[in-house]
Amino acid sequence: MYIISKEFHFSASHALSRLPDDHQCRRVHGHNYVATMFFRSATLNETGFVIDYLDLDSIKQYVDAYLDHQHLNDILPFNPTAENLAKYLFDIFQPKFKELFKVEVSETPKTKAIYEID
Ligand SMILES: Nc1nc2c(c(=O)[nH]1)N=C([C@H](O)[C@H](O)COP(=O)(O)OP(=O)(O)OP(=O)(O)O)CN2
Ligand SMILES: [Zn+2]
């Protein structure tokens, strides 16, 4: 199996709900998010690609247009945890990119949430 990945960066703010009153993440705060999208295929195309990285530009355009410099609570219909964001991005792009099998969302250099199919 061949696997490729590409990172998409965006800056956004959020406040998490359904947390204890004294949890710091209830307060509005921001992250420099990194969403890494993973694509796999058992075969390569005639060029030797799983997918041309250039063909992933629609993901960058979406991230830039809809997520970058937004307050995520205002634009997403769910509690904007990293886990929920990973599943959200997977659901948006898997119909277009059948090779997509995993999305990682990192809020800080030390954390990662992953959604992946079997
Ligand atoms: N499982 C999850 N836990 C937390 C999430 C999340 O999306 N999924 N999100 C947050 C906060 O939004 C934020 O990411 C804080 O994370 P944390 O690692 O606590 O950040 P700090 O920089 O404060 O951590 P240090 O350990 O002080 O470096 C919280 N949890
Ligand atoms: Zn946060």
TrEMBL record:
What pathway does this protein act in?
Answer: Purine metabolism; 7-cyano-7-deazaguanine biosynthesis
The record's catalysed reaction(s) read: 7,8-dihydroneopterin 3'-triphosphate + H2O = 6-carboxy-5,6,7,8-tetrahydropterin + triphosphate + acetaldehyde + 2 H(+)
Cofactor(s) listed? Zn(2+)
Recorded protein name is: 6-carboxy-5,6,7,8-tetrahydropterin synthase
Source superkingdom: Bacteria
How does the cofactor attach, per the note?
Binds 1 zinc ion per subunit.
Q: Which residues are listed for Zn(2+) binding in this entry?
A: H14, H29, H31
Q: Active-site residues?
A: C25 (proton acceptor), H69 (charge relay system), E107 (charge relay system)
One Gene Ontology term of the molecular function aspect: 6-carboxytetrahydropterin synthase activity
According to its UniProt record, which protein family does this protein belong to?
Belongs to the PTPS family. QueD subfamily.
Q: Keywords of this protein's UniProt record, alphabetized?
A: Lyase, Metal-binding, Queuosine biosynthesis, Zinc
The species this protein belongs to is Microbacter margulisiae
- Biological process, per Gene Ontology: tRNA queuosine(34) biosynthetic process
- Return the InterPro entries for the record: 6-PTP_synth/QueD, 6-PTP_synth/QueD_sf
Q: Does the keyword Transmembrane helix apply?
A: no
Q: What EC designation does it have?
A: 4.-.-.-
